[in-house]
Amino acid sequence: MRFTLFLVLLGINFSLNVYGQKVPHSIECEEQTSAILKSFNKQDFQASSILFRSLTSNCPEGEKKVLPNYVAFLKEQISGQKDIQVKTQLIDSLEKAYRRMEELQLYSTNDDIARVTYLLNSPNSKKETIHKLIKRHLNEPQVLSESLIVQFYANLSILAKEERNDKKTTSYTQQFFLIYPELTKLFNEQKYSEKSHSIIQSYYESTFGSCKKMDNSFQSILDHLPKNQDSINLLLTEISSTYEKMNCLASNTYKQVLDSLSRSGKTVELELKKANHYKEMRAYSSTNSYLETAKKLSNNPREIDSIQLEQCKNMVVIQEFKKAFDLCISPKTNYQGEFYIIAAQCVMAAPETCKESDLQFKLNAFLANELLVKAKTYSISIDQSLESKVKNALPNDQELKELGVKHGQEITLPCWNQTLKIP
Predict the structure, then answer these.
(1) CA distance linking residue 213 with residue 211, whole number of Å
(2) Domain ranges of the chain
C-alpha cells in the first residue's frame, strides 16, 4: 500500500514539476523509469498505469525504454485475469500501448497476430484495426489460422455494410468483393474445411449472391470508384466477370460497367459483351449494331466468322431471313457447316417472302436440302426435326410435272439468287 501511494505521489510530483517547464533532466527520467519498472515487478496495474501516463508526458526517452516492458506487463496481467470487465480494460490499455509503439516506430508487425487475438476479445476494439492487422499477413498463411481468416472476412463484411449505409465511400466494399477469390484460392491450397469455406461464401453471397444484390452493391461502388485508372479498370473488369458468372447480363448496372470500361477505348470483347446484354434484353437491333462494331474492330478471321455466325442467328430470331441467308451463304473459312444449316433454316422459314406459289416454294426445299448436304461434309450434326421438315417439303414427281420441272434440270430461285440442279 505504501509503495502504491509512493508511486501515485511520484507521478503527481513529476506532473507538477513539468507543468509549463522543460522536460525533466535525464537523471530524473532515469529515476522515474526505474520506479515504473519496479512497479511492474510488483504486479500493480493501477500504480503502473498512473506512473506510465506520467512518464509518457514528462519523459519521452524513458517512455521509449519502458514501453516494451509495459506491453509485456499488460500481457501478463491479461493472461491471469478472470474478471471479464477488468480483462477488457487491460486489453484496451494494451491496444493503446501498441498504438503508441506505432507512433514511436517501435512496433513490429511480428506482433500483429497476437495483437489481433487480444482485440477479438474486447468489445471496444476497432474493426478497422483488426482488418489492417490481419490483411498484412494474408500472403503468409503459415502465420494465420483458419478461424482467423474466417473472422477477418466476417469483420470485413461488417465494415463493408456500415460503409454502404454511410454512402460516403466503398473502400471496404471493394476489398470485400475483390478479396473473395483470393480467399477461395487460399482455402483450396491450404485444404481448409468445407465448413469454413461455406461460412465465407455465405458472407459473400449475402452481398453479391443474386442479380438484385449485385446491382445494389455494385451501384454504390460505381458511385465511389478509385482515382487511379488502372485500379478502376481492374475493379470494373472483375465486376463484369461476376455478372457474367451469375448470368445477370440483362442488368442495367452491368451495361453501366461495360460503358465505363469503354471509356478507355472500344474493344471486340466489350462490344460483344454489350451485344449479349441487349440480346438478353431482347433488343435485337441493338444486338446487331454492337456485333457489327465488334466485327469491324477485329483483325482475326476466325473471330470475324464467329461474330457473323452470331449475327445470322440474331437475324433468324427477328425473322430477317433474307439478310441472314445472304450473310450465311457467302464463303467462310470457319464455321461453314453452321452457316449452311442456318441458311437452310432461313429457306424453310420464309414462305411468305420467298415464293410465288405453294408449288414454287416446294422448289426451295431442294435448296435447303442441298445446303444440309453441304453442311454434312463438315462433320456437323444436324437437328433431325430440320432434316425431316426439309425431306417432307421436297416435291414429288407429280408436283415437279405440274411445275414443268424435270430431274436434272437447272433452276434459278430468284428470291435467294441461287441456281441449282434438280436431283
Answers:
(1) 6
(2) 1-125, 127-208, 212-299, 329-423
